[in-house]
């Protein structure tokens, strides 16, 4: 029997105090909506809180009140449901969520999982009431959900945000000289989450009214200490920008900011847009700082010209030593730099020396935060070091990955069939590969780019939001479409650009099978020639990123037979697979097979020579 009910009232009427005692003294979650806006809250006294909202200037456009009353809810369960509903609403996109994001919590409490078991049923009831348009899986697979500022921060992430806010507040109040704040962390530790959350939180602090503080801000909120008149005053005319070097990720964040109160897509900037702008920022937050460029041959002559003109504009001369990081510092008073040196994937990215210098400078100045806990992948904290050692040829033991689907395939067609099966069941299962084949389909009209085990594969047909594009399941994503994105499952092809020498016991780079021209180009501007060992670092970083995209699982196929043999010692092998039909099949076929020994060949069929990607 359903243990909850949803009651609907007009915002113009008083709640019937004598009708139900729970309206005056019971944990209640409620939603106010009017037009395209919605607000979610929780209270122990619905009559008092709704009366307060009815008198509020900020809620004057609200038309309907929905009260959710659950027979067994306590205060903690109500807070938990409130957080879930806010996050789901932000990801659904039907309404503009006007909540501040300071109150999103993920606190543990007695019997939490039992209470959470009821949340999907409550969600479906609200969906029937047309509060939601999409299902929970559809919402949670969307960029609106994944990149939303309405997130439940982990204690580690919350502590990082607190440290950054305190440092910023102290600098503003004391007039001290600003210094860069650095957040360092592996993939999956939540650097982008912190960046987006901080953008929203600072905007909320700057715009919150005294009425809203009295009405909505709980005294035990994690960030309530920052919602003060003094800090709000210090943030007036305080301009904030989020610099995102990768085009695909930047476009996705812009789409989220367009739908978020107090944020706008104009706050999300490309490095070149920042350099050309006449605006000076109080604070610039840089996501993926390691992907900022040093002076190098850019993707076009126009970009080479822009780089020089921006240097002239900002510094009065075009020294080859200026980087896009120098632009960020010149264009802002304060900086928050999020980085991971092991996610640099091209020689044009900031040098390792520059990144290490940033970390050392921040550590010395006491403005360095490390995010250590791996959050995104269900594989646990040992997965990341395991992947790092595998790619370096240094692993000597299997990784404990629990329920994470982590396995190695000897047949690419079987791995692709499994990815299609997982996509049908969970969504967001995609193929990915290192840049070990030409992009023939881009400029020659070829039917495919490379073939493995009878399957013809094509590279991603779009660079922007590829993971959600209509043809994504039929294509293979590269590092330039996947860095910064989450998948449920990733099928990663480690191409013949990465090989293993069994006699030397070393992984090495095969330049003849690496087709990212910019990924191996010497830097004539700075007089740097990149050896195979130099490029090996970038290629290992590329695979490290690709192998950490899958939240629920990562499947691996290795082209080089010697590298395959080495990795097979430390990655579980598939013994059985269920094969869904490929694009030519008319009916599903299920097969069971034992993993065969490889025949010593690469198993590769290459397309004709073609233009470089």
TrEMBL record:
Q: Where is the GIY-YIG domain?
A: 25-97
Question: Pfam families this protein is in?
Answer: GIY-YIG, SLFN-g3_helicase
Q: Where is the composition biased (Basic and acidic residues)?
A: 577-587
Output the CDD domains linked to this UniProt entry: GIY-YIG_COG3410 (cd10439)
Gene3D superfamilies noted in UniProt: P-loop containing nucleotide triphosphate hydrolases
Task: Show the segment(s) annotated as Disordered.
Answer: 577-613
Q: Known PROSITE patterns for this protein?
A: GIY_YIG
Question: What protein name applies here?
Answer: GIY-YIG domain-containing protein
